[in-house]
Amino acid sequence: MAYNSRKICKRIKVFLVICCFVLPLYFIYSHSLVKEGALCANKACSCETCVSDRGISHWFDMRFNSSIQPQLTSSNEKIPQDILLWWLGLQSRRPRMRMMYSRLFETMPKFNSVENSRSCHCRRCAIVGNSGNLKGSSYGQLIDSQDYVIRMNRAVTKGYELDVGKKTTHHFMYPESAKDLGANVHLVLVPFKPLDLLWLENVLLNRNFLLMFRKLKGPITADRDKVIIFHPVFFKYVHDKWTEHYGKYPSTGMLALIFGLHICDQLSVFGYGWDRQGNWHHYWENNRLGGAFRVTGVHNATFEMNVITRLAEIGKIQLYRGRPGTP
């Protein structure tokens, strides 16, 4: 009997020890589940902070409009007349042909490739510009760790992986900046003019052609099932609300960044602005005219950079300026 009593006591002690370790872990875990559920019920995402959270900055709330969709789809292809005329006038010099070009939207493929519905997740994104401040930054691993990596124009990764990474999920381009893309990369066409839509239609059909007496790249290597057409309505929204008509229209880099604000929950921004010597140039080029990209007569890079800096100051983005190891 005494032996059985000692055995029972021993088992009780073991059970109590297990309870001392397991129950606190269980309560912590169950509390985290309840907390995450409540967080997703009341917020836009499961991150600690979400890009689209309101009430943090009046300046941001006056500009950010989550109802405006960044990509052209079959459900939002109707473009208000005033916005259509603005877009057609960006680079078109043939008014008689404008309305003919506008009909292209009715025949162009519309893809719903970008998930911008806010569900209970935490989508982390990297927007990677092409500034020379990426040289020597060693940001590559950090960039590749994000869920989405958005690049633009003629961005080069081969040979620069340590600084810029090698992962790409979305690549912004227009015909004059087109390049071949890898597998499973979304081609995001920014149509600055109606002819850009003709170009896309042709390259998707593997036709080589001449437009406006200038040879454009075509065909290109790209996944036809992952094409996104940047919506002219969203284009005008960025011009009105974010760049406030400074410059004739926003740059590709600015369009990509605001695109990121709308489809991502947390946003890290790399490769924007000047380098440590104050020069504006691409990281893969040795450009002696370092200020050439700041004032183009079309974009106002100084104003755009001020907007990006403000977004970083209010905590909507994490801005990495090229100093090794630190933002």
TrEMBL record:
Q: Which reaction does it catalyse?
A: a beta-D-galactosyl-(1->3)-N-acetyl-alpha-D-galactosaminyl derivative + CMP-N-acetyl-beta-neuraminate = an N-acetyl-alpha-neuraminyl-(2->3)-beta-D-galactosyl-(1->3)-N-acetyl-alpha-D-galactosaminyl derivative + CMP + H(+); a ganglioside GM1 (d18:1(4E)) + CMP-N-acetyl-beta-neuraminate = a ganglioside GD1a (d18:1(4E)) + CMP + H(+); a ganglioside GA1 + CMP-N-acetyl-beta-neuraminate = a ganglioside GM1b + CMP + H(+); a globoside GalGb4Cer + CMP-N-acetyl-beta-neuraminate = a globoside MSGG + CMP + H(+)
The record lists its disulfide bonds as C125-C264
Transmembrane ranges?
A: 12-29
Subcellular location per the Swiss-Prot or TrEMBL entry:
Golgi apparatus, Golgi stack membrane; Secreted
Hey, which pathway is this one from?
Answer: Protein modification; protein glycosylation; Glycolipid biosynthesis
Q: Which CDD domains does the protein's record reference?
A: GT29_ST3GAL1_2
Query: Which family does this protein fall into?
Result: Belongs to the glycosyltransferase 29 family.
Q: What is this protein called?
A: CMP-N-acetylneuraminate-beta-galactosamide-alpha-2,3-sialyltransferase 2
State the species of origin.
Chiloscyllium punctatum (Brownbanded bambooshark)
